[in-house]
Amino acid sequence: MNTNTTTRQRILTGDRPTGRLHLGHYVGSLQDRVALQYDYDTFIIVADVQALTTNFDRPEALAHDVRQVTLDNLAVGMDPDACTILVQSLVPAIAELTVLYSMLVTVNALRHNPTIKTEAIQRGYKDLTYGFLGYPVSQAADITFCRAHLVPVGDDQMPHIELTRKIVRRFNDLYPLPGSGEPVFPVPAGRVGRVGRLVGLDGQAKMSKSLDNCIYLDDTPAEVARKVRQAVTDPARIHASDPGHPAVCTVFAYHQAVNEEFVPELEAACRAGCIGCVACKDRLARVINALLAPMHERRASYLAHPAGIDEVLAEGTRRARAEGEETMRRVRQAMRIDYFSLDERAEPSVLAFLNAPAFAHSFVP
Ligand code: ATP
Ligand code: MG
Predict the structure, then answer these.
(1) What is the CATH number of domain 10-199+305-335?
(2) 253 in contact with ligand 1, CB cutoff 6 A
(3) pTM for this one?
(4) CB 249 within 8 A of CB 201
(5) 198 in ligand 1 pocket by Cβ < 6 Å?
């Protein structure tokens, strides 16, 4: 296990604390972050400010949801001794970078972002707030505050990663570090999991908590079995012996996501009408429950000491703040806005700067 934080590349990824995490989150992003956490210095952001872009009128839910999302990450197997889990709103560098990056992004680029468009339609927005339209800019700040190299995400996030890459390239071009000419940021790469987008139980749109079509990671075995039984399958298939069309079947998509080795056999059996939907669903429910069982165990052990969740968040956020300060030191230097130091020893030179004729005169009309 390589845990040397100075030599490893960095991952930044995370979730909005807007409710429980579901199977879509797992196959889209959590699975990869768990697998990669010892190979990369991994930062998991609990994106509470981004949650406010859609939930600004429900701030009271955040205190619970921030812990819920953290617990979900710990339950799937993120190791708090190996990764850094942080609260977005407590890392000032993210807010600062968001403002600085906003100069490098046009309003049109944001308006034409396909994910923004889809989400705005799904939520029935007629007009967009500045914060919602601009959340991809704040995501660029999330990714770069720790100078990350890799971002494991679902495929809906790829337009945002593309924007981050553009912002970073533009920033590095405009503002190389004085002296060395080195870029401040690596250009980060997105990484979409094996299943970029898991469909919801309704078979209509992606699995999404706002669409109420989810299998949640903390669903009980009975809930999973019930939900799978109700999942939409091939509508043309009435009898078990009718030939099925796996490409249009939600249950088949779930087998592909969580039961890969069974897929060739299942596909042939379904097309030939040799396996009925009930048997296929029972088998799926068993596989999902086997996947969730160790997560339930870990969840229960963390819940036995809930104060430990806050400790994980506080420690991670502390480390993230230090990392953010280091990034801002480089950013200020590169942008030539490192006018003076504010630490105490430097106080006289601050006064000297403020009293300098050139500065005073700049306000004289
Ligand atoms: P929801 O739509 O359920 O409210 P969300 O989109 O707000 O979820 P985020 O916190 O924005 O959730 O997403 C966290 C990560 O999970 C992102 O990388 C996103 O791409 C991924 N993700 C979310 N839903 C799915 C899905 N159905 N299939 C694959 N990946 C997904
Ligand atoms: Mg989202």
Answers:
(1) 3.40.50.620
(2) no
(3) 0.91
(4) no
(5) yes
